[in-house]
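Write out structure tokens for HTH-type transcriptional activator RhaS.
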Amino acid sequence: MYEWNEMVQLMVDWVESNITENKSLLQMSEQLGYSPYYCSRQFNQLTGMTLRDYIWTRRISRAALELRDTDQRVLDIAVKYGFSSQEAFTRAFNKAFQLTPATYQKAPRPIPLAIRQEVFSPYHYLIKERDKMSKVHLQPAEIKVEFIPAHKFIGIWDMSVTNYGDFWGNGHSCDEISGTLESMSNHALPGQLGQTAGWFYQNGQKGYLYGIPVSLEYDGPIPECMECREIPESEYLVFFHPPFDYLKDNGAVMRTTEEVAWNFDPQGMGYKWDEGIKQDYQRHFPEGYGYAVLRPVKKI
């Protein structure tokens, strides 16, 4: 049923692997075994943009990260990402982000980078039938303790939803928010994964949050539609499943890990839940880190 979702995801992978190369649509289509017209048509149908526009936005966004993180000349970065001149790159950059590359390199600020497209994902498609889920062999969730220092969290707290899918379906632009947070990844709290989701609690109600933890010393700009809150230091119980196959096991891993997290009694480990910190964190990086739910605790 999801043959073309998977095929378009392969197109995305191909673009990302060849982002600095001047390769043609014909070369990609030959590698995938479909005509250029059919590839373009299906890509547009599933992503809402043309393949050409996607490549352009990803190139300009990848170039922006190099401006932020390296001391390369603007001209060298422009040439690397396929622009005919520094002037052409400047026009494109200004069109995308309303400032010049030179200005951004001197003083990076939050900008809405174009993120990698995901069109073949269990977050968007129910690709597992119940009988297949029963055949998944999962490791039991590990439980460990982690100290997270006091920090600031920049993001969105939405009281009307309690999960990832509903959060993005509630008027929040995944591309714009994730892209803007990606431009702030150099400020991420050391030891954390960068963009982070989770849950928060207010007047006995549970909501969902999404953003990025940064150091307590961060005093830079806060993107529009986001806010910044200080989070006290605390130990956290980490309910963790190691790396897994995202497309195959994601739903089952998340469900079993969260079941342990929400039903665990920390007294056996000498802790109680820290009610003073009114948010839990969620880490999700299947192939690299795995999946984890973090709940704040304090010693009894």
